[in-house]
Write a structure and sequence with these properties.
Blueprint: E1 2-7, E2 21-24, E3 28-32, H1 41-45, E4 49-51, H2 57-60, H3 63-70, E5 78-82, H4 84-93, E6 114-118, E7 124-127, E8 130-136, E9 144-149, E10 154-157, H5 165-172, E11 177-183, H6 191-196, H7 202-210, E12 217-221, H8 228-236, E13 245-246, E14 252-254
Length: 255
């Protein structure tokens, strides 16, 4: 499997500040933030699956525009996979005919442009030989991490989370894990903000990584704009066997 980073910022502002969105091979998105808008139209047309970590705008912003842009020219339905609570939020607050048309009913409910498929924590979706599994996290809204399994190796993307013992247990249960993309949204001096918003700061990341028994490459994402240099200065000073590196837009990870 090949994962291309379309966006991994915690906000906007500048050429490299695209919010969370990852292209897997050429037909799957994991989260659908503003980075999706940089894809060429032909690349957009190949997308048929979107795995969403949670309902916050920086992770779903491009879903409505994606469906609207390619729905009439594609010969397939775009399926969005997410926890049932997340799909309820999308139905009630996005695809509600007020913010955006309900593309689960366009052109009709038998042949819609958009299908919303619930996936509970612990459940998996098979796409050919590829496996996508929802893992537990803790955030301010219902959320999941996603484990991507190529059959030869695995990658876990945390989405947004604070310290979560259940996620650590799930990570440790995967000895074939090669890559871990994990958020660290705030610097250490903003720990109170990180805890209130259920994000990580470098000290919390250190605790999490210290409890891992597996040894993946660790990629730090979701740094808040204007705070990235400070956050990475603190991350790079962490002690431990794992040496996290900053994830960057355009980076390709194969596994």
């Amino acid at each position: 499997m090949k994962l291309t980073v379309l966006g991994c910022s915690g906000g906007i502002g500048g050429e490299d500040s695209r919010t969370s969105s990852f292209l897997v091979d050429d037909d799957v998105l994991v989260d659908c933030g503003t980075g999706v808008g940089d894809l060429e139209f032909d690349a957009l047309r190949r997308i048929s699956h979107v795995f969403v970590s949670h309902s916050h705008l920086d992770h779903i912003a491009a879903i409505p525009m994606l469906v609207d842009s390619i729905g009439e020219v594609c010969h397939h339905t775009i399926t969005v996979y997410a926890p049932p609570e997340t799909l309820h939020i999308l139905r009630a607050h996005v695809f509600n005919w007020l913010v955006w048309p309900d593309f689960t009913a366009i052109p009709d409910r038998r042949h819609p442009y958009l299908h919303l498929q619930p996936v509970a924590v612990g459940e998996s979706v098979h796409l050919g030989e590829r496996l996508f599994t929802a893992l537990p996290v803790r955030h301010t809204v219902p959320a999941v991490a996603w484990c991507l399994d190529s059959g030869a190796a695995q990658l876990i993307y945390s989405g947004d989370t604070t310290y979560c013992a259940e996620l650590i247990e799930a990570i440790n249960a995967r000895p074939a894990l090669r890559h871990l993309i994990v958020e660290t949204a705030f610097p250490e001096e903003m720990r109170a903000m990180a805890m209130a918003s259920r994000h990580l700061c470098p000290g919390m990341l250190e605790t999490m990584l210290g409890e891992l028994t597996v040894t993946p490459e660790v990629h730090v994402s979701h740094l808040k704009p204007g705070l990235g240099a400070r956050i990475m200065e603190q991350v790079e000073a962490l002690r431990g066997k794992l040496r996290p590196k900053r994830l960057v837009r355009g980076q390709i990870i194969e596994f």
